[in-house]
Amino acid sequence: MNFWEYLANRHQQLLTDAYQHASAVFQCMVVATLLGVLIGVATYRSEWAGNLATTTTATILTVPALALIGLLIPLVGLGVPPTVVALTLYGLLPVVRNAIVGLRGVDPTLVDAATGIGMSRPARLLRVELPLAWPPILTGIRVSTQMLMGIAAIAAYASGPGLGNVIFRGLASLGSANALNQVLAGTLGIIVLALLFDAAYVLIGRLTIPRGIRA
Fold it and tell me: Which parts of the chain span the membrane according to its record (predicted)?
């Protein structure tokens, strides 16, 4: 059976795995984005707090994915929970770092002007600082998503969802008729999903970032 015949015969299962893979990455990125922006907001005004937040999230990223998932299995069990925890933790660094950089890069005169017209601290943050910091934050989200697309495949080690299961099945049966087809299908599926997500982020950027700021 060649690769195209394999796709034709297994397309339903591959689509299901692709959907689960994309869903896991999307949901974990939503959580990582919310946490990352909150951490950035809480720490960007202080040099040491910002450095601590960046260093801590960077340290998490140095832990091998397989090791982290293995450490999580005794705590949260197999399946979805270790996948969600691991992907969320790995997705934090680019969002936290870019949120801090973006918020620190806001022109102080704009913040002073907002203060001068009577805006409260939360109003300045929501209506002035975060919108101006959104381009670097979105860049951090794009970087995190690309990382998580690959890392999510390793979640199959803990019976997690996604295209990693196809790759692991192929690797476990090397030498059999469809082993290479399985690895290739899973790998290409992840690449296609990563490109689709990135295209969606480009569209979101065009819709949410004013042309003057993009320039």
Answer: 24-44, 51-73, 148-171, 183-204
> Region 178-187: what's the mean pLDDT?
89
Residue 212 is predicted with a pLDDT of 61
pTM over 0.70: yes
Query: CB neighbours of 146 closer than 8 A, spacing ≥ 6?
Result: 194, 197, 198
Concatenated DSSP letters of the chain? --HHHHHHHHHHHHHHHHHHHHHHHHHHHHHHHHHHHHHHHHHTT-HHHHHHHHHHHHHHHHS-HHHHHHHHHHHH-SSHHHHHHHHHHHTHHHHHHHHHHHHHTS-HHHHHHHHHTT--HHHHIIIIIHHHHHHHHHHHHHHHHHHHHHHHHHGGGGT-SSTHHHHHHHHHTTTSTTHHHHHHHHHHHHHHHHHHHHHHHHHHHHHHS-HHHH-
